[in-house]
């Protein structure tokens, strides 16, 4: 590998770590590393952080969420795994680590690869399509179980059903659950249960086995078993291994249970819920019965109080009618008395409020005379004032001034001539007198005014 081009100056720590990371990633291709898992951390981000170690060394590992979500098993401390990883350096802290691309159980690499290939092929065929899965019956009458007589899983199923739903019938379809030929036997047992479902009266089928390694559970990764489960005439529940174990049978089944006991609990869930409901009803039934009996007793008592002989009811009705008639007569008499008193009061008020027309007529006549005299006096005063104003207006009239010997002289344009200098000899003038007017011509103009004379007048 060529040496990186380093600058001829001191390197910052970040630069050093970056050069180291580039060198590591360039020197190591994507490789496989095997070891034991420890110190697992699962932060909220979904990434996985753990240590991969052996008896001589250890290395930190990081698996990003996009890869961690595809793991077919739950990673746990102490597991031996084979990691497909990239060697790198975590620059912020200068830590040597592996970026893990994939994980599988160590020592079972070929089996695991075969498992993944078969799963992908059957999934592409639509064998695991969720739309084809069937729901379990709520109250199954009889359950079929595919397992071994000697298997602990068979005893777990019997114990769970005896505890939760002892009335359910159980039919065992025995088969090997491990070793050579176990897959074929399991498929044959499922086919037998499907063919005899009506005759045996089973409503659901459990395929169960306890936990183990990948090799121990390999019979449940058989293709023939997966196809038999999908073709079964009744719904199938797979309860193989522990919670972290996953097989092809789990994907093919209508419902997967994490353990054989959980499979029995799922198939008996309806009976268990019904039993709990019955227990709850049994606890509330006495109180409800007492409440209903008390309500019924009260209704009987009320009905007994209303139950009387017809003769007695008629007598009561007659007494009631007589009493009501008496009360009605008294009420009518009181009402009439009140109305009569009210009428007398209104008549008295009417007589008191009647107007005295003679007095009103005399008063109107007197007011008419006063109005006439006042009008005449006002008219007389207005006429006297009008005469005085007319005299004043007459004395101030230009005509009165002209009648005393004065005259108004106008030039040819009709303008009043106030000064002799405003006309010249030969101008035409008009002279207005107290009686009539004269047209004249100026023969001479004198600006000086003699004693007792007004210029231009």
From TrEMBL:
UniProt-listed InterPro entries: Exonuc_VII_L, Exonuc_VII_lsu_C, OB-fold_nuc-bd_dom
Signal peptide positions on this chain: none
Transmembrane regions: none
Location of the protein in the cell: Cytoplasm
All residue ranges annotated as the Exonuclease VII large subunit C-terminal domain in the record: 127-440
Enzyme class: hydrolase
OB-fold nucleic acid binding domain location: 12-103
GO CC, alphabetical: cytoplasm; exodeoxyribonuclease VII complex
Key words, A-Z: Cytoplasm, Exonuclease, Hydrolase, Nuclease
Catalytic activity: Exonucleolytic cleavage in either 5'- to 3'- or 3'- to 5'-direction to yield nucleoside 5'-phosphates
Pfam families cross-referenced by the UniProt entry: Exonuc_VII_L, tRNA_anti_2
Chain segments annotated as coiled-coil in the UniProt record: none
GO molecular function, one term: exodeoxyribonuclease VII activity
EC number(s) stated in the UniProt entry for this protein: 3.1.11.6
An individual GO BP term: DNA catabolic process
Keyword Hydrolase: yes
Its biological purpose: Bidirectionally degrades single-stranded DNA into large acid-insoluble oligonucleotides, which are then degraded further into small acid-soluble oligonucleotides.
Matches recorded under HAMAP family: Exonuc_7_L
Quaternary context: Heterooligomer composed of large and small subunits.
PANTHER family: EXODEOXYRIBONUCLEASE 7 LARGE SUBUNIT (PTHR30008)
UniProt-recorded name of the protein: Exodeoxyribonuclease 7 large subunit
